[in-house]
Every structure is written in structure tokens, then in C-alpha cells.
Amino acid sequence: MAPTFTFPALNADCTALILDWLDKQSLLVAACLCRGACQAIRPRLVRNVSITQLGKLMHFCHFVFAHKLASSIHAVTLRVLPGPHLNRYLGSFCDVLEMACNLRSFVVYGSTQALISITGSPRVAVLVAGGTIPLTKLEMEGIDPSGLHALRTVRGLSCLAFSFAPSWNPGLGQLTRIIQNSSDTLTEITLRAVYAMGGGARWTLKANAGTSFAPCAKMRRLSVQDMDVEISFLASGFPRLEHLALDHGCLMDTTGILGEPVCPNLKSLNCPLELVSALRNSNISNLRRLSMDSIPEDQVACFADALACFPLRRLYLGAFLHRDGPPRDISPVQDLLAHIVPSVPGLRVMEVKVYGILHVNIDFCEFVHLGYVSTISWPKDIKYMSMSLVDLSSPYDRLAPLFIPSHESGLRWFHAIPSLEYFEYTLNDSTAASFVRRLTSEADGTAHGDEIECFSHIGDVDPTQYEDLRG
Q1: Residue ranges per structural domain of the chain
Q2: Cα Rg of the chain (Å, integer)
């Protein structure tokens, strides 16, 4: 008779290996096997906890106390909304935090009012300020100067994300104090301003007597939306920045960086044209990705000149095109690519989104379908190409038939660009077609030729895989 398998027969190492493969739902099912399985699985149920409701917060505290699991907690993610009973639960939650000796990550999401109740409460403030809680990531929505004041003692952050509420007295000094407290640990910051209909003072990131902080040597990623930004202030505060995103709502001062060697480690950039032009002489030799989502047609030539200064591998371009004035020899779409593409000879991934009205939409369709792609001098190693049209005028049903997948259209693109492996086009992010080049082989493994597959949808393809040359 075969021996009966029992959970306690497994040694601790074997048990750990098995349980590491199970998600939370599977762990709950496995805990019902026997008492031994339940005891082994309980600590894993609280190792990485995400709490989204006040009732679950209280249940979590009771569960930890009942089974003495505080030392098993490694990460806590807390997402709460303001409510009349929030403060009532903080006592038990603080008791858990004080005993969680192996806590490594404490992530807090929510509104200013709720978070001030948590991080600004006396006991939590002592834990955070004293370094007992390693608050590595903090995200707050609608924060105002009073919220920044409540967090002035937080230290050791690695990731900081603030959405600022409308304010007549933006507290940049308090924000920079929080950055200063974590200047040796911060790796990522996201800042977004929200303005009321009636206006209000703009949030700023500019140097003055009360906003200086030690350079954040570990900072790699910065995202800013709808704020006034002094680029030299960012460059000095975050000297090793690798990823920078400034949306078109940012008002920028670039005078301090013109011709200066700033951001030498920058790898990806999402910004308005003004910053690209200012950085063209800054010797940014590591820049591989550039995203521009609002290029007006009269600035295309200027943008193309600036592009020649960067060793790009991936380019995302959004352009507003029109067809006013005297007749042209070539369409606005063809003219756009004829200016841009020769400026980026090392490009491997290109994504173009055209915002068009009237005849521009027809020009776009003709460029995609009728072989005008062969008139462009394409980079020799380009692998991925995406063309999309946002139709701002024509009724949708007038253009949709032009975007029906056509195998002949795909063939024209692959014949014109020998290195191309993937091509797609879309209309209003709905009607779409995609084409993939497949290399077929004989039975003995020798290459036979190319096969172009056509699909009536966007392929599940990650452009990142095409950014580097493959052997």
C-alpha cells in the first residue's frame, strides 16, 4: 500500500518552495488542508498586505494580534478615504506598526485629509520621523501646504508622488524640505498641480533662498505636470536623472542651461519642443527615447534640426497638421516624415500620431496605402513603425473604410523598409490593422524568405523589444 502523503511530512524548506508559487487565493485554499498547513500559511497572508477599506484595516489588526504575526509583515499598502471613523482605527494600526520589526515598505495612498490623519497623528508621526517605519513610497492626492507641513519630518523615501490642490499660497519650501530629508534615498518623484476654475497661484519648481536642497544623487526618474519649472534648478538638484517627463502644461525657464552640459545620464525625455531646442547643445549622449505629443506644423523643421543632436533609438511624435495656403507638391504627412526621419539615422522604433482635419485625413490614408512610404529615406535599422490618425473633423464612417486591413498596403511598407519587422496603423484608436514580418525556413533550417502576416487589430507587441539590435 502506498504511503499516505501528509502536509507535516514536508520539511520547512520544501514547504517554503511550494508556498512561494501560490497566490493569495491559493494560499487560502491550501490553509484548509489541515492545522499544520494553516499554521504554515498564516504568516504569508500578512507578508505583503494591501488594505483598501476601514473595515479591512480593523480585521487585519485583529488577525495579526490573534495569531502573533506582526514580525511576519514585510510590506503594507494602505489606501483610505476620509471618514468619521478613521481616527478610531489608528490606535490598533499603530500597535501593529510598532511590533512589525521586519517591515520594509509602507505605501500610503489617499486624500490629504485621510493621510494627515494617518501620517500626522502623534503616534505615527513619531514612528515615521524616528525611522521606525521605513516609509519608502508615499502618494498623496489633493495635497495643500498644510498637508506638506504634516509630512515635514518624513525621511528615507525612495518614491514620492504628490498631486497638489489649488492654492493661493503654494508651499514649495515645505516640499523641498521633504525632498531634502530624503535626498540620499529618493529615486523617483512625480508632481502634478491641479488648478481651480477661478485661478490661483501656480506651483513652482524654481531656485530661491528658501527652496535649496542637497543634490539627490540617486534620483533617476522625475515627472512634472502643470507647474512652473526652472530647468537649471532641476538639473542641479537631480544631477543623475535618467528619465524626465514634463507635460505641455509646464511653463519652463531654460535660460540657465543653454549650451551647458546638463543631465549627462538622461536616457528618456518627454517634454515640449522648447526644452528639446534648449538641450541640443548639451551633449546628451545617452538619450535614447524622446516623446513629443504636440508639435505644430510650423515648428517641424526646427524640431528636425534639434533631433539631429540626439542618438535616439525610439521616437514618439504627435503632430497637428493642416493644409491651408497655396497647393503643395507633397502632402503634410509626407512632408512631416521627410523632415523628421533623416534627422534620426539610428532610429529603431517610431510612433507617429497625426491630428488632422479636412484633407489631411485623406493625405494620411493615401500615404499609408498608396506607396508614398518609398519616398522617405528610412533609417537602415528601423524595426517598428506605427502610424495613427486622430480625425478632428470628418465623420468617422467616411474614413473607416480606408482603414480596412490591406495586405498590399503592408507589403509596400516592408518592401520600402527592408529592416522593418512590425507595422501598424489606426484610426481614432479603434479601426486598425497590423502587419508582422515572419522569416520562414526550409526543413533543413536554411532561410527561405519573408512572410507578411496581416491582422485587423493592433498586435500584442511591445515596441521596447525592438529598441536594441539583436544578434
Answers
A1: 288-471
A2: 28
